[in-house]
Amino acid sequence: MCGITGIVLRRSSIVSDSLIRPMTDSMHHRGPDEDGIYIHENTAIGMRRLSIMDVAGGTQPLFSKDGNIAMVGNGEIYNFRTIQDELKDFHQFTTRTDMEVVAPLYQKYGLDFPNRMEGMFGLAVLDKAESKLHLIRDRIGIKPLFIAQTDNAIVFSSDINSILASGHVVPELNEQAVSNYFNYRFGALGCDTFFKNIRSLWPGEIVTIDTENFSVSSTKYHNHVPFSNDELLMGTEQELTDELEKRLRASVTKRLMADVPLGTLLSSGIDSTLLTALANDINPSKVDAFTIGYAEKSYDESDDAKESADHLGIKWHRYAVSNEEYTDLIIPGIRKNEAPITHPNSLAVHLITKLARENGYKVLLSGEGADELFAGYGRTTDLHLLNGIKNKYPKTLLKLLTATRLKFNAREAGILNGLVDQKWDDLLAIYFSVGEQDFKKREGPPPFIKELGGKMESSKLFNHILQVEQRSYLQELLLRQDKMSMWSSMEVRVPFVGDPEVVKFANQLSIDMKLKDGINKYLLRKVAERYLPKHICYRKKRGFGSPVGDWLKQNDQLKDLAFSLKDSDYMDTRQKKYYTTMLEEHTSGKADNYEIIWKMMNYLLFRKEYNI
Asked: How far is CA 303 from CA 263, 274, 316, 350, 543, in A?
């Protein structure tokens, strides 16, 4: 795990060490073990390394045997040993690092080479003979990779801050991302970021920079269609449970590969608990578990997590978060997140990974992505119930009930109308919305959601909904996890969504294998029954929340920070009044406004931090 960066100047310019050095230095947290830079004429690539595979010998940049190819990479390639065996007659490997396979793979297979790799990665491959620099991102989008182009420079990096450190890119605010942030469960969508002039590579994308002509082109190496057209899987519940267990075990086994200590992030939920059980079963007594804790019992999952750890017989660590410590992290957290912090619990991800790092760990497994694969969110359950109502009653009656609001609230009525009329973009906009607020009004569904909604099919409604989750909300969670864990110099691996065989299988399951008899993640829980007591498999998860709402009332430091922003120059008169009203109502106990207060605070602090 590392951070990579680089820059291409117009042909008449030569890159110097003094230009790229600040770019690598800004990512020290991503790779505190060592750095590496390679400069060739008008092009420079660099990296910071967190050593996990071949700790002593995995220094980058890495080169092809003839020296024509230079590469830097961030992430892990889990099938690298298989690739080494396939290429042993083509290339003599001199290290045990996974990234050494990239240059010979590229030389043998050209730009089809990423299809032969399984893993999470952001890569930069410089082909000097062809005057091409190829940037490649993994097919799921687990590892970030950003790019910006100006009149004189093309800059890329794992971190936006590194791009800004080049001095060639001036940050500009992306208003569409701001609108999404206030109105939906995500901020930047698709390839957007909160910076108008900096974009993310799509999952499965290759960007090619012609270093001679100073031009950029793009292609997809992965068939990243909006929705899978695979037929639903047939089979008994027993057969499907067997197959899911087999694929999960294979995925976890691959992600236990490391030359350093490895642990898991453990909450009260079934995702992380099953993951921990599988890791412990595959690699007994060698996996520790780490849990975040709060003094506020309604948010604390420690007792449930400890019960699971005790049952599995593994060592368990708890990090107790104080409100003062949490408040101190908000502003530096925004800088590391490179965006407003959408989820208050993001800072908890940093703290628990920091605890693991202090205990000598460099790699953790996370259950991220299981909700998007196996229908774990309450909003999906609600949609399933409303779809059942839609199928039960005539359209005229439903239209009457939604118009008069006799039986349904505004959100339910909007979703029902979307289901009845099959207006999928409208349905998606309401499905992902976070409720009405007056700070930043919604202006119709975001373009990316409209595009996906236009391609949905009623016969595959729920699998399509979950695939939209995977392409929108999950992308924000994966980016959040990368930014907050790498702040602690910690690699986090995601066996649920990181393995294409697990993702493909989950997306071919019928909704009845995900939501059954009021139980979400149904088939996942059936697998868990083979490793855990039933009461653990079916207990209700408390949610990975944080007591920010309580702290805004009780913690003078957090309250003072919130009130200090009420006259911010980044608000107009109406917004200032709205912000102050929300704060006063919340801190006096008249209303629970913490979610919108948190969003407004982070938005204002983000703009102040980046002066945009």
From this structure: 19, 17, 11, 21, 14
E strand segments, 446-604: 491-493, 515-516, 519-520
Could you report the per-residue pLDDT of 158-171, keeping only the tens digit for each? 999 999 999 999 99
Q: What is the DSSP letter of 110?
A: G
Q: Of 65-69, 304-308, 541-545, give the lowest mean pLDDT range.
A: 541-545
| Nearest by Cα to 341 from 79, 129, 597 | 597
pLDDT digits (tens, 9 = 90+) for 260-300: 889 999 999 999 999 999 999 999 878 999 999 998 888 89
Specify the domain boundaries for CATH 3.60.20.10 within the chain: 2-220
Q: Please say whether the beta carbons of 347 and 333 come within 8 A.
A: yes
pLDDT digits over 357-413, tens only? Answer: 999 999 999 999 999 999 999 999 999 999 999 999 999 999 998 998 778 998 999
For residue 250, give every residue at least 6 positions away whose Cβ sits within 8 Å of its Cβ, in sequence order, or none: 499, 501
Task: Give the torsion through C-alpha atoms of 338, 342, 343, 346, to 10 deg.
Answer: 0
Q: What is the DSSP letter of 173?
A: B
Integer Cα distance of 543 and 263 in angstroms? 21
Count of alpha carbons within 13 angstroms of residue 435, beta-carbon side: 7
- How many other C-beta atoms are found inside a 10 Å radius of the C-beta of residue 601? 25
AA identity, residue 275: L
Domain 2-220, CATH homologous superfamily name and number: Aminohydrolase, N-terminal nucleophile (Ntn) domain (3.60.20.10)
Which residue in 296, 322, 291, 295 sits closest to 306, CA to CA? 291
In the chain, ranges of CATH 3.40.50.620 domains:
237-374+473-537
Predicted TM-score (pTM) of the model is 0.95
Q: Are strands 363-365 and 262-265 parallel, antiparallel or unpaired?
A: parallel
Q: Which two tokens stand for residue 556?
A: 């003078």
pLDDT digits (tens, 9 = 90+) for 393-405: 999 999 998 998 7
The β-bridge relationship of strands 43-49 and 316-321 is: unpaired
CATH homologous superfamily of 237-374+473-537 equals HUPs (3.40.50.620)
**Cβ pair 571, 579 in contact under 8 A:** yes
Q: What's residue 551's pLDDT?
A: 94
Q: Which helix (H) or strand (E) holds 38?
A: strand 34-40
What sign does the CA torsion over 363, 368, 373, 374 have? Answer: positive
The one-letter amino acid at 34? E
Over residues 466-489, mean pLDDT = 95
